[in-house]
Specification:
cytoplasm; 10 helices; Peroxisomal Thiolase, Chain A, domain 1; globular; 2 domains; fatty acid biosynthesis; 25% strand; lipid metabolism; alpha/beta
Length: 312
Amino acid sequence: MNGSRIAAVGHYQPAKVLTNEELAGLVDTSDEWIRSRVGIKTRHIAGPDEPVDELASHAAAKALASAGLAPADIDLVLVATSTAVDRSPNMAARVAARLGIPSPAAMDVNVVCAGFTHALATADHTVRAGAATRALVIGADKMSAVTDWSDRTTCVLVGDGAGAAVVEGADVPGISPVLWGSVPEMGHAVRIEGEPARFAQEGQSVYRWATTKLPALARQACERAGLTPEDLAAVVLHQANLRIIEPLAEKIGAVNAVVARDVTESGNTSAASIPLAFSKLVERGEILTGDPVLLFGFGGNLSYAGQVVRCP
């Protein structure tokens, strides 16, 4: 095979929906304050009996069903997450056990909000190298478990969920070369640390970096795919903040593209945000088979990764 492609996608969100009005009963905030600053209306929150691997498994099962595959067809499981509670067994091994995947290589990827695009690139490289035949690539996070619900600057942002993709070999590459990197001196800008672990960020620093530096990086990712931004059918950025997503999409120059705005109903779901939003676009028929779609994640470390994929 000359490359790899995404054969199918799937997503999952917990049933519980937390509205801005409900948050206003917990902290000093309001629906107007939240919408005007981050564009979020609602978010889904997992219960105490819904661990990260359960969210991931639901999304992965949907992707497998959509691809018409059985668990035994998978020989690599990659789970991008930064909210795993235990160090071992990792989330990938737990997902494999839940789904009955018999003997996969099973690895977690912790690159926070850019985790899924890093994991997708890793799967692409692995399949093209012949070390795997088919991979499950999952982004799943339970941000509610690492949130200080008394801090209105962060608790209004987060949501829980998962998105997944099946990656397999292809004669015609459907995943372009990745553009990835990091800004180590800004690693402190997004954090999940402490005991107990808590999410914190320097929002203005991330906003300034994203709006000034990321457009050029996104255009470079398009160049690696042999495309221009005008060729894109959709742009799926990390769903951090609507006030970042909208100006970014404009600065990239993707004038003909659908722009994913799932943050409004899902909040910031970290590693889950890109596959979750991508899967919803596919499910709603807003993009069609073969359409070029830019996926670009950024966030903790400060790491970034982006590639153009063809819609399954």
